[in-house]
Design goal:
Layout: H1 8-19, H2 37-46, H3 50-68, H4 72-92, H5 97-100, H6 103-116, H7 119-139
Helix pairs in contact: 3-4, 4-6, 6-7
Length: 167
């Protein structure tokens, strides 16, 4: 029998998406030239930054696991996806751009640390990234959303796919 591990955040996200009934009458600036029923529905599903933050949170956990397992390529991949998700979120909600700018040095620091491919550099950069996430939350007046490194490795990637160079 196959057992699937269901994460509480995933269940919450799916329920939140299903329960989302807020209607937006007009598309935001980034879609304003495409004002249609489909666009309005798309905007309603994407909402503000909350969906992007759920994605970033998952990728943050995967980044933590990748670094701890020294799967540097996967860590680089997750860092890039965090950067992309944040860029797209700010494109949708430009009023968040100023706060989001504070993430750039932390992401750049992570990218540089991953080039070194060692635990100490990774852990220092990850600690800085975590602190910066929390500072951004405070700046956006959602400081009650405290980011903490995951306890233990909770990666979706199986351990056999890590440390491929160490045998």
């Amino acid at each position: 029998m196959v057992f699937l591990r269901v994460r509480p955040w995933l269940v919450f996200t799916l329920l939140a998406l299903a329960a989302c009934t807020a209607k937006q009458k007009k598309a935001p600036e980034w879609l304003s030239s495409q004002d249609s029923e489909q666009t309005t529905q798309l905007v309603r599903h994407l909402r503000g930054l909350d969906i992007a933050m759920w994605e970033i949170g998952q990728r943050y956990e995967e980044l933590a696991a990748a670094g701890e397992r020294e799967n540097w390529d996967y860590a680089v991949y997750q860092t890039g996806k965090i950067r992309l998700a944040l860029e797209l979120a700010v494109e949708r909600r430009p009023k968040r751009a100023e706060s989001a700018k504070m993430m750039e040095p932390a992401l750049l620091g992570m990218e540089k640390a991953l080039e070194r491919r060692n635990q100490l550099s990774f852990r220092q950069a990850f600690q800085h990234l975590t602190a910066t996430c929390n500072a951004c939350h405070v700046a956006e007046k959602v400081g009650f959303m405290v980011v903490q490194p995951p306890e233990g490795i909770t990666s979706l990637i199986h351990p056999s796919h890590t440390k491929a160079t160490k045998e």
